[in-house]
Amino acid sequence: MASKEGSVCQIFSFQDWKASPDPILELPVQYLTHTPSPIVIDNGSFQTRAGWAAPGAELDPPRLLFKSVAARSRGAARSETQIGNDIPNLEPLRWLLKSQFDRNVVVNFEIQELIFDYVFTHLGITSEGSVDHPIVLTEAPCNPLHCRQMMSELLFECYSVPYVSYGVDSLYSFYHNNNQRKLQSPHTGIILSSGYHCSHILPVINGRLDAVNCKRVNVAGSQAASYLQRLLQLKYPGHLAAITLSRMEELLHEHSYTAVDYHEELEKWRSPEFYEREVHRMQLPFSSKVPGGCVSVEERQERRAQQLRRLQEINARRREEKLQQDQERLDRLLAVQELLEDGLLDQFHKSLVELNMDSAEELQSYINKLQLAVEQGRQKLLHSDGAEGKAEPVFNMAEYHQLFVGTERLRCPEILFQPSLTGEEQMGLMETLQYVLARYTPEQQEALVSNVFLTGGNMQYPGMKERVERELLAMRPFQSQFKVTMASCPALDAWHGARGWALEHPPGAVSEGWISRQDYEEKGGEYLSEHCASNAFVPMKIAKPARPAEPPVTMQASTEGPAAITMVTTDPTPPSSTSAVADVTMVTT
User: Fold this and answer.
1) Cβ atoms of 213 and 197 closer than 8 Å
2) Structure-model confidence comparison of residues 461 and 342, the more confident one
3) Which one, of 450, 432, 449, lies nearest residue 198 by Cα?
4) Could you give the CA distance from residue 589 to residue 574 in angstroms, rounded to a whole number?
5) How far is CA 196 from CA 27, 145, 409, 468, 552, in A?
6) What is the sign, positive or negative, of the torsion defined by CA atoms of 377, 378, 379, 380?
7) What is the phi-psi region of residue 244: left when phi exceeds 0, alpha when psi lies from -120 to 50, beta otherwise?
């Protein structure tokens, strides 16, 4: 929450959200009909969302939302692994956290199995050794065949699911929002998706993903959070431990924005008035108690003030004593000088000898120095008397523990458009979009830019839609038309779209988009049944080397000498073309 000082200074506190363990839900009876309800899992690299695709619950949110991480100490048992919301605070266990993802592709299937166990258990599935519900699962655009094969093997072999359907999260979001806007199918448009690990440009033509022209940008939310952490740690080296990744993610989600014109916005921050009005002061937690004691900051400051007053009194007395001594010595020297003026030379010379002086000039020099010292002493006393009423400047502990977040609010989201800010040698999101559009005819370009769709958790910055519109205006020909649309809920629309698709396309013998166990066994784990929100399936033939036949070995023993061994080797039979060819899928971007 924010508090304002004179409607100028904005002070915010970190929420430091603590996750609470998810309850184990009861499986509703209506989901156990002769056609079990599908389970929809948005397997995101930042957050996993899971729930049911059941009629009558179209507006319900996902039953489970948790971070896609697992924490297990080295050598710990499988049952001791903490998943998602079982970890109340990520920061103490940051070094133990593991994810199933490498960027946006699942590669660690041991962690993925733990995630599935967590989902199925907390959704109330208690059947031993099997999950009797169809699974709708999201995957990365142009997902590698090996990764899909391993995922299908995990679901069919380990959980014995009846059906699986794979789709791309941003395509589900595109499908969901187009249905909400009641656009006529098949849909054509271009999707700008930005998640936690990477961003994508996905062209969709006549309701199908054009996989050949998809492009990925390796800049997204995690890079923005790391960049913000690096900036603030360099700015506040005294608070390195307090500037955590979790707090940086909170800063990005709650306090950052995208500048419509980056350089123009930076110029505004040069103004002191603009800075004071727009800077966000983030209050770090701190203790007002002295380590090892129970004295508060206010009490300690009062004690320091008392000590300072006593020191001021002691110094004032010393100044008064010194001023008095200097004044007495000056009076004595002036009396000696009067003897010279009165013509009493004998008494004058006698007094000079007593003062250990040689001449009247030396006497005058000492008189001048003492007069200056007396005048300075009087001035100091006057100043010290005036300073007694002044308040002592007090050290503000709360202000010391504040982070002033100024231009960082717009510099970190800007790396999506300028990756070079972080040292990345690659094109930004809009440059990549221009490259993708250039691969189409002018007529196709017009159709694509008429439905530019923004989705993903990293697209939720204020000003993102306006920035994309400005960049498109500069990119497209004069007087050309385009339309930019933001997802109604960029973080959750993928799950809602997958659920809507599952309700409209229930699994069955002739259902499009579903992979049955028979399909898995006959066509392989990499097989994909295409639908409006899936990747493209491009079969490719790969020759498998045939196993050569083992050569027969003949052994002949002789009675007259050592045994003679004769080895007869036959030529291996060449593999037949029919048995050495298999269907494999590959998608090239």
Assistant:
1) no
2) 461
3) 432
4) 36
5) 31, 22, 18, 19, 59
6) positive
7) beta
